[in-house]
Amino acid sequence: MDCVFDGTADDGFEQSGGVISILRNTFKQVGQPDGDAINLKNGVQGEVAYNVVWSDGGNCVKMNSGKTSRPTDVCIHNNTFVASGLRRITELGYGILIDKSSRAQVYNNILGDNYQQLEITSGSDTAKVSYGYNLFFGTADTVKLLTNIYPADGWGKLQSNDVVDRSSSPAKGYSSSLIFVSYAPNFTGITDNNDYHLLASSPAKGKGLQAMPTNWTWSNPIVLFSGDADLGAFTSSSNSHK
Asked: Kind of pairing, strands 195-198 and 180-182?
C-alpha cells in the first residue's frame, strides 16, 4: 500500500498464490522492456484498487491461474492505467489482461492510451468474470482505441455502462483534457508530469459502481468490495490514492 515502483527491469509486483490487497500504489516506467506492473497468478485472491500505472512495458495488470486448483480471482477497481503496453518487442500489452482460467471483477477503472485496453480472453473463466463502469480514452493515433477497447480476439464486449464518447471525430473515446487536471501521453519519456485528479466536470465523476460482488466462497457465498462513486484512482473517497 502507498508505495512507488519506478523503473524496475521486470515486473513491478508479482504474486503467486495467497491473498492480497494492492492499494494506492504508483507504478512508473516499470517493465523494461516487457514486464508487467502487477502480475498475479496461481490462485491469488484479493483486491487491486486505487493504483496508478503509467508507461508500463507490458500489462498494467495480468492475471492467470496456471495449474493450481484454486483460480486466480481478483477485484480490480478504481485504478488509473495509462500509456502502457507499447515497449514489447514481440507482443504488445494491455491495460488489464484476464487469462488462463482466471476469474475477475473489473469496475470503475480509467484506461487510456494503452496499446490494448481490457482483454478478457476466451481461456479465462468467463462465467465468473464480471466487468463494466470503466472509462476509456485515447489521444494518440498509434492507439486504435475503437478496436482495442475490448480486442476483437477476446471475450469481452463494450458494456452499456462503460463511459465512452462516441460523438468525437475521430471517435477515440473521451479526450483526456476533459478527464484529468493535466495529461499528456508521453510514451517515450521517463518522467510522469501528469495530474490524474479529476476535473469537477470530468465524465468520470459519479459514474462508478459502489457495491461489487466477488466469486469467493470462503465463509460467505458473496463478498462485497466497496467501490467508489467516481472512476479512477483519485476520487473523493477516503480510500482514494493519496
From this structure: antiparallel
Mean pLDDT by 10 residues, the chain (242 residues): 95 94 96 92 94 95 86 95 86 92 95 92 94 87 63 91 66 69 82 94 94 64 76 94 90
Bridge partners for 195 per DSSP: 182
Q: How far apart are CA 55 and CA 121, in angstroms?
A: 23
- CA distances (Å), origin 84, targets 46, 57, 81, 188, 236: 23, 6, 7, 10, 26
pTM of the model: 0.93
State how far the Cα of 19 lies from the Cα of 6, in Å rounded to an integer.
24
Q: Could you tell me which residues come within 8 angstroms of residue 151 by beta carbon, excluding any fewer than 6 positions away?
A: 94, 116, 119
* CA–CA separation, 90 and 124 (whole Å): 22
Domain limits, the chain? 4-226
